[in-house]
């Protein structure tokens, strides 16, 4: 992408870039390594992959389209464990984590491809009772990925010394 792309292309490029960074930070790791935290934080790379799969679903399906999530999210008792996505990743193989992530990423991309940046989400923000437009959601996703990719840098370096 050039630095003179239109707004939509620029936002989607940066989102895809950060998605690819997550994959690069987590690539080649075993299930045990994906479940290795970087104390004192309990965050793991496997948990991060599953969390970001949930984030993809939440913002595209739950917020933007206003629909109930599919599985595995629909049957989760979120009141019992609000961080289920992070905690349950230890029970998944790397292939299962990536299959879930890739499916949610592709589903989100289909939602975004069919919408305009000014289109409003169906579900209002529960704090402000306003509805975000797709532009805001994409910027928020870029921020979410950027923050977690910073975490991933530290966790991955603590696991095997890989940096960059």
Give an overview of the whole structure:
This protein has a single domain (18-74, 81-160), classed as dinb family like domain (Four Helix Bundle (Hemerythrin (Met), subunit A), Up-down Bundle), CATH 1.20.120. The chain is built from 6 helices and no strands. The longest helix has 27 residues, at 134-160. With 164 residues, it is mostly helical. The two termini are 21 Å apart. 59% of the residues lie in helices and 0% in strands.
Please give a quick description of this structure.
The protein is mainly α and 164 residues long. The chain has one domain: Four Helix Bundle (Hemerythrin (Met), subunit A).
Secondary structure elements and their pairing?
Elements: H1 7-26, H2 31-34, H3 45-64, H4 84-88, H5 94-113, H6 134-160
Helix pairs in contact: 1-6, 3-5, 3-6
Helix fraction bin: 55-70%
Which ranges are low-confidence, i.e. pLDDT below 50, for 5 or more consecutive residues?
none
Q: What's the alpha carbon Rg, rounded to whole Å?
A: 16 Å
Q: What's the CATH class label?
A: Mainly Alpha
Task: Tell me the strand percentage band.
Answer: under 5%
């Amino acid at each position: 992408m050039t630095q003179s792309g239109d707004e939509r292309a620029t936002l989607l490029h940066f989102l895809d870039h950060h998605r690819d960074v997550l994959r690069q930070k987590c690539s080649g790791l075993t299930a045990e390594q994906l479940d290795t935290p970087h104390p004192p934080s309990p965050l793991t790379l496997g948990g991060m992959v599953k969390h970001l799969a949930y984030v993809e679903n939440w913002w595209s399906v739950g917020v933007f389209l206003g629909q109930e999530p599919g599985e595995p999210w629909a049957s989760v008792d979120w009141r019992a464990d609000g961080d289920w996505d992070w905690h349950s990743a230890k029970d998944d193989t790397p292939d299962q984590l990536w299959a879930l992530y890739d499916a949610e990423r592709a589903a989100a991309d289909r939602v975004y491809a069919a919408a305009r940046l000014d289109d409003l989400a169906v579900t209002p923000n529960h704090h402000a009772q306003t509805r975000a437009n797709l532009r805001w959601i994409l910027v928020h996703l870029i921020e979410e990925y950027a923050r977690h990719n910073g975490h991933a840098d530290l966790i991955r370096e603590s696991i095997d010394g890989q940096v960059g």
